[in-house]
Amino acid sequence: MAESVPSKKELFQHVAAPSGIEVDRGVALKACALCGGKSVRRLYMQAHFPVVRCCKCGLIYADEHFRDADLQAFYSGDYYQRAYVCHPKEIDRKIANGYVAAFDRIDRHMRGGSLLDFGSARGTFLSELVKRGYTQRWRCEGIDINPDEVAMGRAAGLDLRCARLEESGIAPGTYDAVTAFSVVEHLQDPIGILRGLRDVLRPGGRILVHVPSGECLIVRAALLASKLFGQRTRGFTDSVFHEEHLYYFTPRTLTEAFELAGLRPIGFGFEPSYLETHPTSPLVALGAYGLRGLSFLTRRQTMLFGIAERVG
Known about the structure:
Order of helices and strands: HEEEHHHEHEHEEHEHHEHEHHE
Distance between the termini: 53 Å
Oligomer: single chain
Number of strands: 11
Largest sheet: 7 strands, mixed
Structural class: alpha/beta
Number of helices: 12
CATH topology: Rossmann fold
């Protein structure tokens, strides 16, 4: 029998919002990561913290106050079993197929070299690169803070290290390319992490970042549903505003993040989410494929990717 994995609700049951979070809804307790401002417009109230939009730069973020221990507990054990509990078997491999397609945007412009997958978990993306022969031209490594996920990847023969980036000991200029798939939005200091990833790139090296879009159709639908129906659509709206998602980007705010980190933006694009490409049931598929089509037509797809380059 598979080992039981504590749910997100169980892990976050002791999380408490600061007492002053409701004093003035137009003022965040957590400063914007891009501009340092605290003047905000509240968009949605999660179980513990509000999701807000910075009035100065437009960054959407959670005015969260998780302790390091809260997040460390969440990113431990079998992460995929916890985070994708309602999704089909081998969802990690299905998602990795999309990541390989995204990586091709870097691969087609480079001749290979050394690659670091930041937030690699068990290394499913790297495993797909191995299967498809990319390792003939790329030396692939991964880094993650989850010891259980890293152990799974190492057991499969992947080159993974368990460490925080700032404590990893990776020498500056080590890699030709860095990927960060669905990880930057989970971090409390995204600019600091992007700076760290810039440092491990060689001059001319490229980074591919994959994050939720703050302008996507499903976010707009969730905000409208919350406004019109309140608690009656809570299940849907909470599934859109994941409590572990601390940031939602747009091409403009991701450009600012890259530039603050010392990276030169090269290009941006949008993709459907894993729910739109791998729905959990035939009934969900009807809505998912409809959302996917409408999002494509309106250019408001769920996931945003950005590519940037280290200059100097």
